[in-house]
UniProtKB/TrEMBL annotation:
Enzyme class: translocase
Full protein name: Magnesium-transporting ATPase, P-type 1
Domain Cation-transporting P-type ATPase N-terminal: 14-86
Keyword presence, Cell membrane: yes
Catalysis performed (reactions): Mg(2+)(out) + ATP + H2O = Mg(2+)(in) + ADP + phosphate + H(+); ATP + H2O = ADP + phosphate + H(+)
GO molecular function, one term: ATP hydrolysis activity
Protein family (similarity comment): Belongs to the cation transport ATPase (P-type) (TC 3.A.3) family. Type IIIB subfamily.
E.C. designation(s): 7.2.2.14
Source organism of the structure: Ruicaihuangia caeni
Record keywords, A-Z: ATP-binding, Cell inner membrane, Cell membrane, Magnesium, Membrane, Nucleotide-binding, Phosphoprotein, Translocase, Transmembrane, Transmembrane helix
Length: 862
């Protein structure tokens, strides 16, 4: 446990109400930050970071293998047995329990290590000043006294007092409950009793930057933050996925079954006059046999194997249970750029409203892109690559997702085409005091209504005909282009801008960006749809652009719903609309979250793929949030799956591997529970009619141990193609029916074996136990191959590891009674050849019966 920080955190109370110099002094830092040595020393003493995956100590994993109630009671009873003189029996039982626990420990350790390694590859970083230079560090390595740099898209890594800020807006909805961004200002004076929302000179963990830039000094980290106490309480709550909940419900079902059987078997054997301790050990051994003790290890192994396979396909899961969710997706909502398109956006041309290429439009767009500081936008980088300028704004109105535009105020002398004096002659530009130029860039739909005139190619202005310009923009968008508008207005040089200044603009022209459909995107869409996953395109682009892109990749686009239309729909009409709509255009961030929530409410399992600031809410709302390694921090943090390479083909691979992983997990559960239930029920019945125990406790535990060895390889087993064609869900009722039907079939053939042994061969206790041990192990192996597939056993190819491990266990099982010392220790003797032949015939009939029952009840294996 980390030591208490030497920094006096009591002095940080109401740090928002104190001067910056006092805050810096209280955390023993300066505006230039810490040295690396100081940061390393402080990290060892501060509160643990929130939300970081930590490897469980090996000792805890090992102890966990032996601390389930059944194992504890069995170990206790065995120790009592040894104390009463039965040292050999007790030692054998302890050895088998130890071996089973070590097997589970090995597998769970591998799974835990795999998760830690994968998460390390997609960590979110923070920018801090160390030794006077900007350095990138893990969020968990940010310490009190660090000076952090923040810009749009960044997660706030800790509670911090602002030192500098520029047009800073922060989404603190996790702390305040307000969905609108909060304006922040380093120079603001705040009272000590101010609410969280009113503390405008600080930023806090749990929030993220929407626009603007800032520097801030950290005053609290981890659980010492405002958000930390709440997050710790939430983390302590029992929040489980549907898969985990299903496992837990099934576990309670087995626990009740085991408890009832154990008590009944013990009481009946005690009534029959058998020694109390022997009866208890037998009953507890049966309980161990029924219980799939390796289930936690198998689930962890299956999911970690799936995670490693996904990583090979450049898909990293941040939590293992997301693999099950990935395989269960029925709807995938995705953005356009880089997913359905190449993502290599290029500025094809800058044109006036009548389609003539224009240097002025290009220059104005570049000035806007260079001067703005509030929002990192890849389109601005593309503009500056085409026309490099270095501009500084007198004032700025940052981009936001409601206005869908940004404006900067620059000196008029910065624009050299056409002649600046031309502006003085136009009716909506008064030359008096108009020493600056407002340059606005954004979506056509939001910029065009603000304009009253339009500039022609020769530089002259005329009254704007909105419909003509809109028609031209729509024509460009229908060709699959993304179109932005540029407008301007001469005005006085101000220190601040408001939305009211974005009026009476002159429409300068259009920027036309081209982002062609990605090669293979159409095939990936078809692959997902063939797998039962509907692909829904959600984009902020225009309806025409969205429709063109959707058609190019095979997404049905007969109906396109815009964000404005979406806002007018009530919940009932929204549900109806979603039945056919596959394309949503001109949407805002909350529209995306509303679409996802509505789909989930209609019982769809929703995946959402996004990488922008405006995707964070929808990523949280989805069953599976999917982002990319190059995404902004807030999107990557919100996602449960991170793609190292953006594209639908990668997602399609992830869905298939998710289904394969979940299918193999369910395969183990079905096989072990049905086989164990059948065998142990047979043993319980046999114990009631035989004058001796049908199997000794050590033999039951060895049988259970041997059958678990090949079962461990199921995590990497092959899965039939038809199982990957539709989403897989946890179905407890179907699992119960499966266990009952195939468990009872196993019991029927065990009773046939019982009849063969008792009435056919008159077997005594040791011969009976030896033959039953061999037969029980072989039937578990046989059912493994029969019930791992819904196909006929000979038409489905198992994994090589499953075949080899099963053959090895079968050889050991058959050979064990013939190996003198081992046979003596285990209480076995070689069965007669004729008896083995008879048991072989029963085994063949059992496999055939399983195959017939599979064909009669195919739904149980899907």
């Amino acid at each position: 446990m980390p030591r208490r920080s030497p920094i006096d955190t009591t002095q940080q109370v109401a740090y928002w109400a104190r001067p910056v110099d006092e805050v810096l002094g209280s955390v023993r830092s300066t505006s230039e930050g810490l040295s690396q040595a100081e940061a390393t020393e402080r990290r060892a003493t501060e509160a643990d970071p929130l939300g970081e995956h930590r490897r469980r100590p090996a000792l805890r994993i090992l102890i966990g293998q032996y601390t389930n109630p059944i194992s504890i009671v069995l170990i206790g009873a065995t120790i009592v047995s040894m104390a009463l003189g039965d040292v050999l029996d007790g030692s054998i039982i302890i050895a088998i329990i130890a071996a089973s626990g070590l097997l589970g420990f090995w597998q769970e350790s591998r799974a835990d290590n795999a998760v830690a390694e994968l998460l390390a590859s997609v960590q979110v970083k923070a920018r801090v000043l160390r030794d006077g230079r900007v350095a990138e560090v893990r969020l968990g390595d940010v310490v009190v006294g660090d000076v952090v740099e923040l810009s749009a898209g960044d997660l706030v890594p800790a509670d911090a007092r602002l030192l500098q800020s520029r047009e800073l807006q922060v989404d603190a909805s996790a702390l305040t409950g307000e969905s609108f961004p909060l304006e922040k200002d380093a120079a603001a004076i705040v009272e000590a009793d101010a609410t969280v929302a009113a503390r405008s000179n600080v930023v806090q963990l749990g929030s993220h930057v929407v626009s603007g830039t800032a520097r801030a000094v950290v005053v609290a980290t981890g659980r010492d933050t405002e958000f930390g106490g709440v997050a710790h309480a939430v983390a302590a709550a029992d929040v489980r996925t549907a898969f985990e909940f299903g496992i837990a419900r099934f576990g309670w079902l087995l626990a009740r079954l085991v408890a009832v059987l154990t008590v009944l078997i013990f009481i009946v054997n005690w009534i029959y006059g058998r020694p109390v301790l022997d009866s208890l050990l037998f009953a507890l051994s049966l309980a161990v046999g029924i219980t799939p003790q390796m289930l936690p290890a198998i689930v962890s192994l299956s999911l970690s194997v799936g995670a490693r396979h996904l990583a090979q396909r450049r898909v990293v899961v941040k939590r293992l249970d997301a693999i099950e969710d990935l395989g269960a997706i029925t709807v995938l909502c995705t953005d356009k750029t880089g997913t359905l398109t190449t993502g290599a956006v290029e500025l094809s041309r800058a044109v006036t409203a009548d389609g003539v290429r224009s240097d002025r439009v290009m220059q104005l767009a570049a000035i806007n892109a260079s001067a703005q500081r509030g929002f990192r936008n890849p389109l601005d980088a593309i503009i500056l690559a085409a026309h490099a300028v270095d501009a500084t704004a007198l004032a700025e109105l940052p981009y936001d997702f409601q206005r869908k535009r940004l404006s900067v105020l620059v000196p008029r002398g910065m624009v050299d085409t056409p002649d600046n004096e031309l502006l003085d002659e136009t009716p909506n530009h008064s030359s008096a005091g108009s020493s600056a130029l407002l340059v606005t860039k954004g979506s056509v739909g939001t910029v065009l209504p603000l304009c009253v005139t339009v500039r022609a190619a020769d530089g002259g202005e005329s009254p704007l005909t909105t419909s003509e310009v809109q028609a031209f923009a729509d024509q460009l968008a229908a060709e699959g282009n993304r179109v932005l508008a540029v407008a301007s207005r001469a005005m006085p040089a101000l220190h601040a801008l408001s939305v009211d200044d974005e009026t009476d603009l002159t429409f300068e022209g259009l920027l036309v960006f081209r982002d062609p459909a990605k090669a293979g995107a159409a095939e990936a869409v078809a692959s997902l749809q063939h797998a039962g996953v509907r692909v829904v395109l959600i984009t902020g682009d225009s309806a025409a652009t969205a429709r063109a892109t959707a058609k190019a990749v095979g997404v049905p686009a007969d109906t396109v719903v815009t964000g404005q239309e979406l806002g007018a729909l009530d919940t009932a009409r929204l549900a109806v609309a979603f039945r056919d709509v596959r394309v949503f255009a001109e949407v805002e961030p909350m529209h995306k979250a509303r679409i996802v929530s509505a789909l989930r409410a209609s019982r769809e399992v929703v995946g959402f793929l996004g990488d922008g600031i405006n995707d964070a809410v929808a990523l949280h709302a989805a069953d599976v949030g999917i982002s990319v390694d190059t995404a902004v921090d807030v999107a990557k943090q919100a996602a449960s799956v991170v793609l190292l390479e953006k594209g639908l083909d990668v997602v399609a691979d992830g869905v298939r591997l998710g289904r394969r992983t979940f299918a193999n997990t369910l395969k183990y559960i079905r096989l072990t529970t049905s086989a164990n239930f059948g065998n142990m029920a047979s043993l319980a019945v046999a114990s009631l009619v035989l004058p001796f125990l049908p199997l000794l406790p050590r033999q039951i535990l060895l049988l259970n141990f041997l059958s678990d060895i090949p079962a461990m390889t199921i995590a990497a087993d092959e899965v039939d193609r038809e199982q990957l064609k539709k989403p897989i869900h946890w179905n407890l009722r179907r699992l119960q029916v499966f266990m009952l039907v195939f468990g009872l079939l196993s019991t029927v053939f065990d009773l046939i074996t019982f009849a063969v042994l008792v009435w056919g061969f008159g077997a005594g206790s040791v011969e009976f136990q030896s033959a039953w041990f061999v037969m029980s192990t072989l039937t578990e192996l046989a059912v493994l191959f029969s019930l791992r597939t819904a196909r006929p056993i000979w038409k489905s190819r198992p994994a090589v590891a499953l075949v080899l491990s099963s053959v090895a266990v079968a050889v050991v099982t058959v050979a064990l009674p013939y190996i003198g010392p081992a046979a003596t220790v285990m209480g076995l003797e070689p069965p007669p050849a004729l008896l083995l032949a008879a048991l072989g015939a029963v085994l063949v009939l059992y496999i055939a019966a399983n195959e017939v029952l599979k064909r009669r009840m195919p739904g149980l294996l899907h």
